[in-house]
Amino acid sequence: MAKRKLGRTTDHRMSMLRGMVTYLFENGSIETTVTRAKEVRSLADKMVTLAKTNTLHSKRQALSFITKEDVVKKLFDEIAPKYAERNGGYTRIIKMGPRRGDAAEMAIIQLV
Questions:
Q1: Distance (Å, rounded) from C-alpha 66 to C-alpha 22?
Q2: Contacts for 11 with CB less than 8 Å, ≥ 6 apart
Q3: Can you identify the CATH homologous superfamily of domain 11-111?
Q4: CA distance 13 to 19
Q5: Over the stretch 6-64, which tens digit does the pLDDT of each residue have?
Q6: Which of 15, 39, 13, 82 is nearest to 30 (CA)?
Q7: Is the pTM higher than 0.90?
Q8: How do the domains of the chain map onto residue ranges?
Q9: What is the 3-state secondary structure (H, E, C) of 8-22?
Q10: How many CB atoms lie within 10 A of CB 78?
C-alpha cells in the first residue's frame, strides 16, 4: 500500500505523524484533515498492537516512535489493556465537513 506524502519531505512527515500519534494517545482525540487522520490511524493502531505484548522490547520500540515517555507509560498501562479482547480497529474517524479557510475536509480521530 502506498503511503500519502502529505506535501512534506519524509523527515518532516514522520516527525509530524509521530507528534500527532503522541497527542492522540495523550488526549484521546485530535481534530485534523481526513488524509492526515487516515495516516495517523494506521500508525496508532500499530502502536496499540505493539503495546498489547507488554515486553521490554516492545516498550523500547514504542519509545523510539512516541515522543514522550509518560505517554508510552499510559499506552502500556491504560490504553492497551482496554483493547486486550479487540483485534484491530482501535481508532474512529468522524468527518466534520470543510475547513473555513481552504475548504479542506476536516475530521476528528479518536480512540474507540
A1: 6
A2: none
A3: Ribosomal protein L17 (3.90.1030.10)
A4: 10
A5: 999 999 999 999 999 999 999 999 999 999 999 999 999 999 999 999 999 999 999 99
A6: 39
A7: yes
A8: 11-111
A9: CCHHHHHHHHHHHHH
A10: 11
